């Protein structure tokens, strides 16, 4: 009986290595066994020739509906679907996954999608997939991701003696504040942040830092424990709680400085990522995914104290004025 047996890597170029296989037969392919076609056209999976056994090989799919160049790569550990695209510049081959993960019809559809990408862009589908994955990552970029990029940039500057190690610790402290459950901003995607989210987080962080202030004596902190917002208390209310003198100003501004620092750090971190994204978009000839820094609102809505307000605070609170 005359037979045609699938051989090694040159198989896709040989007409005789195109077989109409059932899904069961596809799953039976291995380096030890391959498809054999007899005179009656019935395909069976049989042991390979001794000189070929144990070696990877390729088989073209002869079933109706299979895209041109569609076939199977039979390796030493698994069999995968693949498509070969040939053109003036040569052939391009790309894998579609293991035959045990998806069926032939699904693989056909996936192959058609990838072939459409090749026809449209002229690039290997893996490049387009990598670009698509990169854009998806940008769309899901969180505040914590921006801080990570900012810290990485600062670490380079520290190595070049252009920044101090304390700067990195300060940035990490700011991120830790955003990660507090009562603030909950660290894991939020940048593209989803609205002005109202920034305002809410600012107020939440201020009150969270308020109760942690180390500028307020313990007895006063205990007297204020039941007050949800110390900044909302009048001077008379504070005095009734035993807060007097310079501590009135300290209590009213408790937690505000660390909150302002944290949000300023957040804006800088996002600004850095936006700058990198604009550059990448220009090089890839696409529109930037990230266009606007939502933390710009801290300046637009005057959420931070200006130098004059800070001087007044330092004078009334009788603390060191770093602006002087």
Strand order in the sheet with the most strands: 2-5-6-7-8
Rg (C-alpha, Å): 33 Å
Largest sheet: 5 strands, mixed
Order of helices and strands: EEHEEEEEEHHHHHHHHHHH
Overall, the morphology is: elongated
The number of helical runs is: 12
DSSP E strands, number: 8
Strand percentage, roughly? 5-15%
In percent, how helical is the residue content? 40-55%
Derived from helix and strand composition plus strand pairing, the structural class reads alpha+beta
Distance between the termini: 100 Å
Q: Kindly state the mean pLDDT as a whole number?
A: 84
Poorly predicted residue ranges: 1-15
Describe the structure.
The chain is an alpha+beta fold. It contains twelve helices and eight strands. Strands 2-5-6-7-8 form a five-stranded mixed β-sheet. Strand 3 (33-37) and strand 4 (43-47) form a beta hairpin. Helix 4 runs antiparallel to helix 5, helix 5 (165-178) packs across helix 10 (256-284) and helix 6 (195-210) packs antiparallel against helix 10 (256-284). The radius of gyration is 33 Å and the shape is elongated. The protein starts with a strand and ends in a 7-residue tail after the last helix.
Keywords:
5-stranded mixed sheet; 3-stranded antiparallel sheet; 324 residues; alpha+beta
């Amino acid at each position: 009986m005359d037979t045609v047996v699938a051989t090694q890597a040159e198989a896709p170029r040989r007409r005789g290595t195109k077989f109409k296989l059932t899904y069961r037969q596809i799953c039976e392919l291995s380096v030890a066994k391959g498809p054999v076609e007899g005179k009656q056209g019935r395909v069976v999976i049989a042991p390979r020739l001794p000189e070929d056994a144990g070696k990877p090989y390729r088989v073209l799919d002869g079933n109706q509906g299979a895209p041109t160049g569609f076939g199977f790569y039979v390796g030493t550990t698994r069999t995968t679907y693949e498509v070969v695209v040939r053109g003036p510049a040569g052939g391009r081959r790309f894998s579609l996954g293991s035959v045990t993960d998806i069926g032939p019809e699904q693989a056909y559809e996936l192959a058609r999608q990838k072939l459409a990408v090749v026809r449209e862009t002229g690039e290997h589908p893996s490049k387009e997939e990598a670009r698509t994955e990169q854009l998806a990552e940008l769309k899901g970029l969180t505040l914590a991701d921006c801080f990570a990029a900012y810290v990485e940039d600062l670490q380079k500057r520290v190595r070049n003696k252009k920044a101090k190690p304390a700067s990195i610790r300060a940035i990490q402290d700011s991120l830790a504040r955003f990660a507090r459950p009562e603030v909950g901003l660290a894991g939020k995607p940048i593209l989803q942040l609205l002005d109202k989210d920034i305002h809410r987080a600012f107020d939440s962080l201020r009150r969270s830092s308020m109760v942690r202030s180390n500028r307020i004596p313990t007895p006063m902190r205990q007297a204020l424990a039941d007050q949800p917002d110390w900044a909302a208390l009048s001077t008379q209310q504070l005095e009734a709680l035993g807060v007097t003198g310079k501590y009135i100003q300290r209590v009213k501004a408790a937690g505000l400085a660390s909150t302002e620092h944290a949000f300023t750090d957040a804006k800088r971190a996002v600004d850095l990522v936006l700058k990198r994204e604009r550059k990448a978009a220009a090089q890839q000839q696409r529109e930037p995914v990230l266009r606007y820094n939502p933390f710009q609102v801290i300046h637009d809505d005057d959420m931070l104290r200006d130098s004059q307000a800070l001087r007044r605070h330092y004078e009334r609170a009788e603390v060191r004025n770093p602006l002087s």
